[in-house]
């Protein structure tokens, strides 16, 4: 089967750093995605990893370890607008598998 | 605004009915993906079309079908509707859809389907 696991909810303080973890088991793996989704809105693409290592994009970074089936999304200098759900998704044999999402609450 | 349009925005219908959801991809995008998002199941991949052809099929019920037309817009048909089909249905598009299908997907605003 395809298992994507990520924490249900996290809370962090404005200005801090938060790491959202994701583990996956995906046959025919060819990529790991992170999306941000605000309540009632469509998901928006944040990052894509297919090779091991860290991809940095402004305040957001994403890491992948294929051998461990593990990824994380790192958010730095948290802002109130970062309060949203963060979806981890893996791709295998051209099919996409989403985790249930991590709801991030940023408090002042 | 992602450039992906979906109609209608909201749809309310009764059990047993049939509905059609429409999606227009971003200009230049050849791939269209359909997803279902319900409260208890998260985002579920349904189906992927590339340049008019079905490329991959996910957890799509037999009561559901989709197609992509020559102008690249896509329709998702849901029939014999059940209460459990109530959900937000997203369409996404991307530029390519080759064997790896890993380019960025841009999501439309979604169609909220309520089955009473």
Would you mind describing this structure in some detail?
By secondary structure, chain A is an all-beta fold. Chain A has strands at 3-5, 9-13, 18-25, 29-37, 44-49, 53-57, 60-65, 70-75, 84-92, 95-98, 102-107. The model of chain A has no long low-confidence stretch (mean pLDDT 94). Chain B has 116 residues and is mainly beta. The radius of gyration of chain B is 13 Å and the shape is globular. The interface between A and B is medium-sized, with 21 and 23 residues.
Q: What structural class should be given to the helix and strand makeup of chain A?
A: mainly beta
Helix content of chain A: under 10%
The strand count of chain B comes to 11
Mean pLDDT across all amino acids of chain B:
92
Cα Rg of chain A: 13 Å
Largest interface: A-B, 21 and 23 residues
- Assembly of the depicted chains: heterodimer
Secondary-structure blueprint:
The complex is a heterodimer of chains A (108) and B (116).
Chain A: E1 3-5, E2 9-13, E3 18-25, E4 29-37, E5 44-49, E6 53-57, E7 60-65, E8 70-75, E9 84-92, E10 95-98, E11 102-107
Parallel strand pairs in A: 2-11
Antiparallel strand pairs in A: 1-3, 3-8, 4-5, 4-9, 6-7, 7-8, 9-10, 9-11
Chain B: E1 5-7, E2 10-13, E3 19-24, E4 31-38, E5 42-50, E6 53-57, E7 64-68, E8 74-78, E9 87-94, E10 106-107, E11 111-115
Parallel strand pairs in B: 2-11
Antiparallel strand pairs in B: 1-3, 3-8, 4-5, 4-9, 5-6, 7-8, 9-10, 9-11
């Amino acid at each position: 089967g395809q298992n994507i696991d990520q924490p249900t909810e996290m809370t962090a303080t404005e200005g801090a750093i938060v790491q959202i973890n994701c583990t996956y088991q995906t046959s025919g793996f060819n990529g790991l995605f992170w999306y941000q989704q605000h309540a009632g809105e469509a998901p928006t693409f944040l990052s894509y990893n297919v090779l091991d290592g860290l991809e940095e994009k402004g305040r957001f970074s994403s890491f992948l370890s294929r051998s461990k089936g593990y990824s994380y999304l790192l958010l730095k200098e948290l802002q109130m607008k970062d309060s949203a759900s963060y979806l981890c998704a893996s791709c295998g044999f051209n099919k996409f598998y989403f985790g249930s999402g991590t709801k991030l609450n940023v408090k002042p | 605004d992602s450039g992906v349009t979906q109609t209608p925005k909201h749809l309310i219908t009764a059990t047993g009915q049939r509905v059609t959801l429409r999606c227009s991809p971003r200009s230049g995008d050849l791939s269209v993906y359909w997803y279902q998002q319900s409260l208890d199941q998260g985002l579920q991949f349904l189906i992927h079309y590339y340049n008019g052809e079905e490329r991959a099929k996910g957890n799509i019920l037999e009561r559901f079908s989709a197609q992509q037309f020559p102008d690249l817009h896509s329709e998702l048909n849901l029939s014999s509707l059940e209460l459990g089909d109530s959900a937000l249905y997203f369409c996404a598009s991307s530029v390519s859809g080759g064997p790896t299908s890993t380019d960025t997907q841009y999501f439309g605003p979604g169609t909220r389907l309520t089955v009473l």
